[in-house]
Amino acid sequence: MSEDREITIYDIAKHLGISAATVSRGLKNNTMISKSTRKKIADAAKELGYQSNTFASSLRSKNTHTLGVLVPRLNSHFMSSVLAGMEKAASKQGYNLIIAQSLEDADREVVNASTMFNKRVDGLLISLSANTENLNHLDSFFKRKIPVVFFDRVHPHADTTSIIIDNYGAAYKVTSHLIQQGCKRLMHLGGNLLRDVYRQRLEGFQQALKDHHLPFIEELHIISTLSEDAGTDAARYILDLPVSKRPDGVFCANDTVAVHCMIGLKAAGLRIPEDIAFAGFNNDPISKVVEPNLTTVDYSGEVVGTTAVSNLISHLKGISDLYMTNQITLRSELIVRASSAKMRTDI
Amino acid sequence: MSEDREITIYDIAKHLGISAATVSRGLKNNTMISKSTRKKIADAAKELGYQSNTFASSLRSKNTHTLGVLVPRLNSHFMSSVLAGMEKAASKQGYNLIIAQSLEDADREVVNASTMFNKRVDGLLISLSANTENLNHLDSFFKRKIPVVFFDRVHPHADTTSIIIDNYGAAYKVTSHLIQQGCKRLMHLGGNLLRDVYRQRLEGFQQALKDHHLPFIEELHIISTLSEDAGTDAARYILDLPVSKRPDGVFCANDTVAVHCMIGLKAAGLRIPEDIAFAGFNNDPISKVVEPNLTTVDYSGEVVGTTAVSNLISHLKGISDLYMTNQITLRSELIVRASSAKMRTDI
């Protein structure tokens, strides 16, 4: 049999000496066909290399059972946990994921959204690039009522649901903790304020300062990409300040920038937490390895992923209506470790 | 206009008061149509929510421009770097990725392979689960000549190309380095030997011992999942040994198990590298954070990903023939850091 020609149910029927109708029913696992015949048909289909016509039937039913996932970067600890959660939830319901990354570039995100649209995904899961300024590139989805779920880096829109954690509340809690440990001159290493996650972390930080009658010090608020290098740069910035102008506590918008800032300060002889206390965000594996271990905010990327996909699929199956839900806020938890324990000796 | 009805080229034609043939040509960017008309057509298509018929034309041409990616787990630093590299290389050539994870379960890998086959991926990229024992689940791909590329966790097969690093050589180099630093009783924390990567790392370790006339000590060879917990368990195992039976150097098949073993030993008062030297594998972010910094093997997951996809697409485009290539071995590099510097004081 030619290997290039498409195998059809007629080939299977001929091979087994039964009717094509029986083969068709057998492949659909129709119980009108005896179990042993169904097995024979399935075995023959496999042997001959028959591809089920999900593809052609998708075209007829307009459902592809495929979800598009657009993320800023695939290679972060958080995003890989989110993807793992999404894949688990999707495959359980018979859905597949097509993925693309914007590499933090809004133009690339526009192209990716258009590709997903033309691939006819049944729904879209998206976390925005750092410099995305509007949602025009999603208009075609909204127009055709293809459901869109935002996660982590979200943007308010009437026709979508957002899956987030309470960034404001978590930042407020971390900052209050640092203040309780005796910090009076607090620094914030934050991210791009175009993104809600980072704006809300800054706002929680500021509100906690205000509620404790402490000043927000402009020159101790640094916005960066939150990379390893940004952490090293922040350490240099702190070391260049006159000793009296240095912070005595730092709240960082992620663990990477916190850990590499700590490493830079330790190399210069500063003591953590005695001279400067530290707190991060994400509970990344490095937070448990750095010495002293880093106080941080734990939230499960996997839960973000499963929640986003479950809500999208419930909507697609008509079980729930995504357009009624504005926002789903997931739990996060402050994990206190030695990097912030100025007052406590029991950690 | 109803939002549920499919928008066709006839709708665009009617909207613009031009012929459907002109719309069709314009959408294909045919230069017979003036640039301004092409722009008008593109704008109208966007406004009306027209979906290009890549889907239907895929059915005709039998190409989906989609590659399947099957991995053991999505949430590891290495795998997320591989995926990032794959996505970059694929999107550059107009291909999309559908992803699925086996969660180290061979049965799940079988189901995932069948899904990818029925989704009619143009090619498959696969890294095997820890307990996959044969390639029967890929037979349908081989039969239909859908190209398969293995990466990282590979299995010899005539019809595929494997993208690997020289695990044997890297392990030999690391072990020789530990021996040069004065280690005489070496331990190996290794992975499941069903997988070539771990078998080859063990073999490189054993050959280096042999070449330096040192014994391979059975009770100092521990096979595990290489997780954080496995590292903690290994520390306990070492601490339970009589002091004279403890290793003076440990070569670990990944950085996670190395770092968490080090943390356990340090907590018990052992000095690294003075009492026990350490070396890992992967150059994971934690290797630069643990104290002392971990000696390790660096190889780029991103390069593994781009190489795998580039080779697959070159084959699909007829530029090169994958069936002629047996194996592509990528460069890796030993990075010596303080965890193994028994002899050297300059690190």
Automatic annotation (TrEMBL), chains A, B:
Keywords from the UniProt entry: DNA-binding, Transcription, Transcription regulation
Q: Which residues form the HTH lacI-type domain?
A: 7-61
Carries keyword DNA-binding? yes
Give any Pfam family that matches: Peripla_BP_1
PANTHER family from the xrefs?
Answer: HTH-TYPE TRANSCRIPTIONAL REGULATOR GALS, LACI-RELATED TRANSCRIPTIONAL REPRESSOR
Q: What is this protein called?
A: LacI family transcriptional regulator
